[in-house]
Amino acid sequence: MKAPVRVAVTGAAGQIGYALLFRIASGEMLGKDQPVILQMLELPMEKAQAALKGVMMELEDCAFPLLAGMVGTDDPEVAFKDADYALLVGARPRGPGMERKDLLLENAKIFTAQGAALNKVASRNVKVLVVGNPANTNAYIAMKSAPDLPAKNFTAMLRLDHNRALSQLANKAGVAVADIEKLVVWGNHSPTMYPDYRFATVNGQSLKDKINDADWNANTFIPQVGKRGAAIIEARGLSSAASAANAAIDHMHDWALGTDGKWVTMGVPSDGSYGIPEGVMYGVPVTCANGEYTRIEGLPVDEFSRAAMDKTLAELEEERAGVAHLL
Ligand code: NAD
Ligand code: LMR
């Protein structure tokens, strides 16, 4: 058996936390041979701490063989102490009629404080995934607030969008999700994101040739993926939770254990490629191996794609300007 690793989860008593922690403890994120110590952060309020205590009691009652320890706390420096993985979920979710960027200023403060705490106490190799919205800009804030940690350790969750796009494409083309490869979701986790299947294949054949419907792409597929979060809120009265937790598991699993050459989408600080200014937290295609992600470089960008990629970039730059005073 491997030595245990420390996994910090913030917002542990929230909706996503409840759908996430049990799967991490059962080995779905880091493998069935990897013991974990869960370090869970919640707000200091009595209600939040009581709910966290209840979640920890349930974790205990599962008797997970891989759960090597648990910490529940309201102090980020305790939650992030020596953390090898940090899933930053805790933040206010949006309600009906709101955009994710409406949460910007309220949630931004959380990520300056948590970035600073990670900087101070986490493992120098900590892998950070930001789920709390607006996820890309919050990840950018956490990264900027942790100057002693490598910028590449900070990522934002675009995987839910990637998975949503996969299912829509599989339905449209009448193929299995598992057979689709080389999908990309560029940019921001917001309605401006650009799901792009120009390079996608099904069993090695071009998916675009199979679908061949520019009108569906522009007027159905792209807006439907972009607005799926709002559609879930409309239907459930609450934002997505199980699918968000599932995407977080997929993101961390693949980052830690590799993608076997398959492309996945991660929000990562730009290296300047594809005309995205360095440092902007932008969804790009990557492969993962040996605990590191590598961008897929050199993909052609046509006129339609350039406009879509610039639109989502402009929104990210606007969000970044909106929080500049906090950094
Ligand atoms: P929720 O309200 O059910 O849970 C959030 C939890 O975080 C609460 O228990 C709250 O007490 C806690 N919290 C708030 N501030 C905290 C802080 N500073 N430190 C520690 N804990 C804190 O919300 P949820 O449905 O679990 O969603 C959480 C976040 O994830 C929201 O911002 C939501 O918009 C976002 N989200 C992102 C994606 C994505 O794809 N990136 C998908 C779904 C939801
Ligand atoms: C989602 O995409 O489901 C989440 O970001 C929640 C939201 O606000 O849409």
UniProtKB/TrEMBL annotation:
The Lactate/malate dehydrogenase N-terminal domain, residue ranges: 5-154
Catalytic machinery residues: 189 (proton acceptor)
Record bears the keyword NAD: yes
UniProt xrefs under SUPFAM superfamilies: LDH C-terminal domain-like (SSF56327), NAD(P)-binding Rossmann-fold domains (SSF51735)
Keywords: NAD, Oxidoreductase, Tricarboxylic acid cycle
EC number: 1.1.1.37
Protein name as catalogued: Malate dehydrogenase
Gene: mdh
